[in-house]
Specification:
Blueprint: E1 7-11, H1 16-32, E2 37-42, H2 44-53, E3 64-68, H3 94-101, H4 105-114, E4 121-125, H5 132-137, E5 142-146, H6 150-162, E6 173-175, E7 184-186, H7 192-195, H8 202-217, E8 221-223, H9 231-241, E9 245-247, H10 266-274, E10 281-285, H11 294-307, E11 311-315, H12 329-332, H13 337-342, E12 347-351, H14 356-361, E13 365-370, H15 374-381, E14 387-389, H16 396-406, E15 409-411, H17 422-434, H18 436-455, E16 458-459, E17 462-463, H19 465-482
Parallel strand pairs: 1-2, 1-4, 2-3, 4-5, 5-8, 8-9, 10-11, 10-13, 11-12, 13-14, 14-15
Antiparallel strand pairs: 6-7, 16-17
Helix pairs in contact: 6-9, 6-16, 11-17, 17-18
The structure holds uridine-5'-diphosphate.
Uridine-5'-diphosphate binds at residues 17, 258, 285, 287-290, 314, 353-354, 356-357, 373-376, 379.
């Protein structure tokens, strides 16, 4: 049975941030089970972009196939050809896309029913949990893959399910159901949409439905994390979702192409970094879709400059302005900032997009000021780079908490609206890059790097925890397939 050719169907949510970890998971599965085939299902334009993410001529992806389901964005009040969250005019229209994604259900049902023999397993996304009852009806084992870490998944799920802040309207902080009683979350650690949610708005309607379906209908939850890095969060998420949890991370760096035009080439970055001492440069980036406010950008620039620490900063037009517009340094940065930075290679300002993985892999990088997107966190830790957290949205607030808890990061600011103090930025940057506490954080980050490498390593019979989790997933699916009463 183990060696039989087995078919797995994957249904990621319609967003680049979900496609990449699903593709990395496909690669991990194929590494363990090269005779499997994997079909990734999505809407036509997303299938086109998924194909374009694959590195050309990489044979490890040849057992990956794609299937398109019909989708017309204009039927859902979305702009024409809008099939993924990355092409939305703004985050305000995300609920339209989320609700529209459920219209794929009858098409997915027909697709899954048409497969003969029926697949071994469906791997759904938390946001595509509407597909789980279809799989159950067809007696196909179905698991959910959360592209977040364990603590992020636990917090996000419990908060959306229970909206606990509504029970404490006068209090700035509140307890979270399922978490230890001493744990309290602050209102500033919630996205605007969660803060104003009342359980009947479009965000909570969709997310609560998907989270409930996941908890009730998935056979297990796969998390994009490493068991040894998040041990206590693992127990927490298991208790909250009442499902077996399998950790399959770190799902990073599989050579996917982003499709974005970088503001700087890899060679130029490497050459610039090559002129700096080991672990002396701070890398600053707020991910693929977030950006900070205009006043915050000024304060960050002042603080970093005052610290005297060399930096590479990926800049984007501030929040509230046209993100697709050309970055105007003279408008958004202190006067003469770029020129002073260029002198003696003190700093490199990169517009829009940088080759992040290559930058973080360079020995000259000693710290990462990040918005705490989970991919960025894993990319940083898997290279032993400690962080300064500045979470801006969504589960980034909880990711920031967990990396502080692990001792590999310190939070400097929070959200797009809040005041940012240039002196605090200066102090925190110095502390991370030059202080004793920063040195301790670097040591802890190096230990995380070792744990992450070990999780996907194999030495004869000895397999890392994430490889064992993939085995367990197959064993559970085989057992369920044989048990027709499941
Ligand atoms: N990224 C990059 N260059 C940039 C900004 C981001 O390569 O200038 C990549 C980064 O390496 C990561 C992804 O984009 O893989 C961002 O994912 P993350 O989960 O950190 O944040 P999100 O963009 O989803 O908020």
């Amino acid at each position: 049975m183990e060696q039989e050719r087995q078919h797995i169907v994957m249904l990621p949510f319609m967003a680049q941030g979900h496609f990449i970890p699903f593709l990395s998971l496909a690669r991990l599965i194929l590494r363990r089970h090269p005779s499997s085939t994997i079909t990734i299902v999505n809407t036509p334009l997303n299938i086109l972009s998924l194909r374009s993410f694959l590195p050309p001529d990489d044979p490890s992806y040849s057992p990956v196939h794609f299937a398109s389901l019909p989708f017309a964005s204009s039927d859902h009040n979305l702009p024409p050809n809008t099939e993924s969250s990355d092409s939305l005019p703004g985050i305000d229209s995300l609920p339209l896309l989320m609700l529209a994604s459920e219209s794929l259900s009858p098409h997915f049902d027909r697709f899954l029913s048409s497969l003969d023999p029926s697949p071994l397993l469906l791997l759904a996304d938390i946001f595509t949990s509407w597909s789980l009852p279809i799989a159950r009806r067809l007696q196909i084992p179905a698991f959910t893959f959360s592209t977040c870490g364990a603590f992020g998944t636990a917090s996000f799920s419990s908060l959306w399910l229970h909206l606990p802040h509504r029970l404490h309207p006068e209090s700035p902080s509140f307890p979270v159901p399922g978490f230890p009683p001493s744990f309290r979350l602050h209102r500033s650690q919630m996205s605007h949409y969660m803060r104003v949610a009342d359980g009947h708005d479009a965000w909570s309607t969709f997310l609560r439905r998907q989270i409930r379906l996941c908890f009730s209908s998935a056979a297990a939850l796969l998390c994009n994390t490493v068991a040894e890095v998040e041990p206590s969060a693992l127990r927490l998420v298991g208790e909250i979702c009442q499902l077996p949890v399998l950790t399959v991370g770190p799902l990073v760096d599989s050579g996917h192409r982003s499709g974005r035009e970088p503001g700087i080439g890899v060679a130029e970055c490497v050459e610039w970094l090559g002129a700096h001492r080991p672990a002396s440069v701070l890398y600053i980036s707020f991910g693929s879709q977030n950006t900070i406010g205009a006043a915050q950008m000024m304060a960050l620039a002042e603080g970093v400059e005052a610290s005297g620490v060399p930096f590479i900063w990926v800049v984007r037009t501030p929040a509230g302005f046209d993100m697709t517009a050309e970055f105007e340094a003279e408008r958004w940065l202190p006067e003469g900032f770029e020129e002073r930075a260029a002198q003696g290679r003190r700093g490199l300002v990169v517009p829009r997009w940088a080759p992040q993985v290559e930058i973080l892999s360079h020995g000259a990088i000693g710290g990462f000021l990040t918005h705490c997107g989970w991919n960025s966190v894993q990319e940083s830790l898997s290279r032993g780079v400690p962080m300064i957290g500045w979470p801006l949205a969504s589960e980034q607030f909880y990711n920031s908490m967990v990396i502080e808890e692990i001792g590999v990061a310190v939070e400097v600011a929070r959200g797009v609206q809040g005041d940012v103090d240039a002196r605090k930025v200066e102090r925190v940057v110095r502390m991370l890059m030059q202080g004793e506490k920063g040195r301790e954080m670097k040591e802890k980050a190096a230990r995380c790097e070792e744990m992450m490498m070990a999780a996907v390593a194999e030495d004869g019979e000895k397999k890392g925890s994430s490889l064992r989790a993939v085995e367990e997933m197959f064993e559970m699916a085989y057992a369920m397939k044989q048990d027709t009463a499941f």
